[in-house]
Amino acid sequence: MNHSLINKTALVCGSTQGIGKATALKLAKMGANLVLIARDEKKLKNTISELDNSQGQKHSYLVADFSQPNELKTIISDFVDSGNKINILINNTGGPKGGPIIDAAPEEFINTFNQHLICNHILVQALYKGMIESGYGRIINVISTSVKQPLPGLGVSNTIRGAVASWSKTLANELGQYGITVNNVLPGATNTIRLQSIAEVKSEKTGESVNAIFDEMAMESPMKRIAQPEEIAAAIAFLASPEASYINGINVPVDGGRTKSL
């Protein structure tokens, strides 16, 4: 099977921790050049130092805060205007705080919409022409199983993830003619800082220990455990590879079978 990404360049968002970092490490091992993007330059430099470069890869980074879409637009426009092309875009951004949807302030929806859908859209608009010119395009959005089955206590996230899924499907219909595929990966409970934060908030409200909450999350999956970031990254990497050339416009749950719908 052809999983090589030699001579391909991937931009990975949120690439200094969790699923984003695991994805960057995986794509680099497959031969891709990496452009990392996140808001913490020190963490970006640390991640760059961990990337495989044994196949002649060249890695770089961009510093951007996704809470400032206009800033991101300037940064990615300057990047493209300098002659850079991206073949693979991994849209991956940390989710909003948890809580019942009835308690969410309108500003929470607006801010999360900007950080996720608007920033994703800014990146795609800047990069898709380069994908067409290079003859290779993969856009992969890391969202959530909540697009199939809303998750309790994550009202704002459920809403915005659904919007991203619909945006992605529409984009897949428009860009497929150019050989660009657009797909979503839907992680279930995954051992990341975000999941730790969600468990800590629940612990404060209920008095349960964080470990007990993690155990409950694990039992929701038929596999009786939560995922590791590397397991989500493996699905992303496949969709980024030449082998996935005719897979377009789909949602891929990576949740150990937790989601009850097909």
Describe, in plain words, how this protein is organized in 3D:
The chain has 262 residues and is an alpha/beta fold. The protein has a single domain, classed as Rossmann fold. The protein contains eight helices and seven strands; from the N terminus they run E-H-E-H-E-H-E-H-E-H-E-H-H-H-E. The chain has a seven-stranded parallel β-sheet, sandwiched between helices. The chain is globular and about 55 Å long. The relative contact order is 0.15. The model has no long low-confidence stretch (mean pLDDT 96).
Blueprint (SSEs and pairs):
Layout lengths: L8 E5 L4 H12 L3 E6 L2 H10 L9 E4 L5 H13 L6 E4 L14 H29 L2 E6 L12 H21 L4 E8 L5 H14 L3 H10 L9 H12 L10 E4 L8
Parallel strand pairs: 1-2, 1-4, 2-3, 4-5, 5-6, 6-7
Helix pairs in contact: 1-8, 3-4, 4-5, 6-7
Short synopsis of the structure:
By secondary structure, this protein is an alpha/beta fold. The chain is built from eight helices and seven strands; from the N terminus they run βαβαβαβαβαβαααβ.
